[in-house]
Amino acid sequence: MTLIILLALIGVFIFIRIPSEKIFRLKWIQSLNKYKWFQNPWLIGVSLFGMNLLLFCTTGLILYVMTVMMIPFLHLVIMAAAIMMSLLVWSSLVHSREWGEGERLKTAMAGSSFYLFLFLFILYKWGTYESRYPGEDGGMAAVGFFLGLLVTGLAFVIGFVMVAFLPADGREK
Fold first, then answer.
1. String of DSSP letters for the chain
2. Residue 19: predicted pLDDT
3. pTM for the full predicted model
């Protein structure tokens, strides 16, 4: 498990260091630049919040539907694909337009706040957790809460750092 997390972090750092002209970008995010609302960093952040919500809910729905199928390790592939899609969306957004001073920070805070809210919700549920019946395994619940905190905390930090501090050269010409 530790090796997988370490390899994933190394992969993210390699992804961040790739020159921007070699990064695949989502064209529909690039095309949003022509709209007036896309010039406001707060509205871009709200749309990023919506994209994060959509990606999270879609992944959750796919994983829920997969509980019917008994294909081992397919859930890991689905989660890896969701991570790559999130990185692609964040990177495409950063390279979609020219950014003024402080605009990317506003966008990153508004857009990544979805994962911050989810982190705080999981923290609250863990803090108020009570066994539903005697003999319930609270240790496994703690492991689940901890993994939820780990995933949402990392998603918030990585999304925030990528949007706010990833080197951007502006729009693709």
1. -HHHHHHHHHHHHHHHHS-GGGS---HHHHHGGGSGGGG-HHHHHHHHHHHHHHHHHHHHHHHHHTTSS--TTHHHHHHHHHHHHHHHHHHHHHTTS---TTHHHHHHHHHHHHHHHHHHHHHHHHHT---SSTT--HHHHHHHHHHHHHHHHHHHHHHHHHHHHS----S--
2. 58
3. 0.79
Q: What is the per-residue pLDDT across 119-145, written as a single tens digit (0 to 9) for each?
A: 999 999 999 998 888 888 888 889 999
**Position with higher pLDDT, 49 vs 73:** 49
